[in-house]
Write a structure and sequence with these properties.
Its main location: membrane. The protein has about 140 residues and is an all-alpha fold. It is about 95% helix and about 0% strand.
Length: about 140
């Protein structure tokens, strides 16, 4: 019986490891997106701080449109990256829950294994006691005869 549980535990550990690898990949993706968001925010702040000087140098409407489209492009990239971050956060939560459930399942099986090992040990002790009782009663009976 313990061998059967050991195989099941090995399998559950394999599943847990696979889920952890998937969780780590999503976590790395989340960090990458956060870095991208910070980079875009820094570019927007830089753009805002340089805007008065750049706007003063604008001599035509075309230059102004290019200036505005650059800012709007950064805002659009930020919004797109924030949407991507929300999606990744949901995926990260889903992977975290799957990993947690896998760990719980592993612990349940491990506790069950320990329970059956304890039951087997109790049964073997009872058998030993029964054998000793048999032996002692046989010795007693053989002495009486």
């Amino acid at each position: 019986m313990p061998f059967k549980f050991e195989n099941i535990l090995d399998y559950r550990k394999l599943i847990e490891d696979k889920l952890y690898v998937e969780f780590s990949k999503v976590q790395k993706e989340y960090l990458r997106v956060n870095l991208t968001i910070n980079n875009i925010k820094n570019k927007i702040e830089s753009y805002k701080s340089n805007y008065p000087d750049t706007a003063a140098a604008v001599s035509s409407i075309t230059d102004f449109m290019v200036l505005e489209s650059g800012y709007n492009g950064l805002l659009s990239a930020l919004n797109q990256t924030l949407k991507e971050k929300d999606t990744i956060e949901k995926e990260l939560e889903k992977r975290r829950l799957a990993l947690l459930n896998s760990k719980i399942e592993f612990e349940k099986i491990n506790k069950l294994k320990e329970k059956y090992l304890a039951i087997d040990k109790l049964n073997s002790i009872k058998k030993e006691e029964m054998l000793l009782d048999d032996l002692t009663s046989n010795q007693y009976n053989s002495r009486r005869n």
